[in-house]
Design brief:
Elements: H1 5-26, H2 32-52, H3 57-83, H4 89-117
Helix pairs in contact: 1-2, 1-4, 2-3, 3-4
């Protein structure tokens, strides 16, 4: 069976976001923004998992579109956390690079799926 790269990468991203949340809430004592990045960052992988068992091709595309929105939101929160000096550049770069890679993968999957739908 072939490895599902977006599934693997979104799960790894979620793990990194959980670690970031722990850092933000314990070390930085930041509770509002940390919850936002936790929610959006972990929901990407959850939606990718849901899409695996979609009821139809349209349902698959819809679930992947939600994952796309969630990863885009995660990028926003990462940028905000970095610009507000809650996370340093190294941590931001690592997470942001992963997020951009994931959004590109998901966007490509959606495009291909829509083309195959026709």
């Amino acid at each position: 069976m072939r490895e599902n790269i977006v599934k693997t990468k979104s799960f790894a991203f979620a793990l990194d976001v959980v670690k970031l949340y722990k850092y933000l809430s314990t070390t930085q004592k930041e509770y509002v923004l940390s919850k936002q990045i936790l929610r959006s960052g972990t929901s990407v992988g959850a939606m990718v998992r849901e899409a695996e068992h979609a009821e139809s091709k349209k349902d698959f595309i819809h679930k992947m579109a939600i994952a796309q929105k969630e990863i885009n939101e995660s990028i926003y929160w990462l940028e905000l956390l970095h610009q507000s000096e809650y996370i340093e550049i190294e941590k931001f770069n690592k997470l942001n690079t992963s997020a951009v890679e994931i959004i590109r993968l998901i966007t490509s999957i959606i495009k291909t799926s829509k083309q195959n739908l026709k």
